[in-house]
Prior knowledge:
This protein has 151 residues and is mostly helical.
Amino acid sequence: MRTLRRLLGYITDQPRLAALTFSGHLAQLALSLVLPLFLRSAIDNGLGRGDYQLIVLAAIETVGITAIRAVVWYSVTYNYTRLSTAVSYNLRDKLYEKIQRNGMPFQLKSHSGDLFSLSSTDTQAIEDFINAGINQAVNIIGLGVALLIIL
């Protein structure tokens, strides 16, 4: 848990980008939850009354919301990538500084492969976690809370 808090601390080093990313993600989730309302309106009012104009209107609204949602989702995905890249860059930079500050005995004891693994493979795993893991966590938590409120 401590590691996750430290990792989230690196995310908050980019406050504007993090806020833009998470607010866009919440907007995309809200747009996803609006679509069933259009369907409910079309079925209850359109089919129930035989008013097919409401069905056509709901279809047009659904296509419009889906198009807006796609643009917002593209923006969110792009911002998650930017955020994870910025965090990865900061981690690599701090790791490089740490390695450079260590004395000669450390440099002689350390295996270059371990240091390379730390600076590339491990930071790449963290970058992937932020890009995909945090993204999915916000999806699950956001949809779970919204569905509990709706139900």
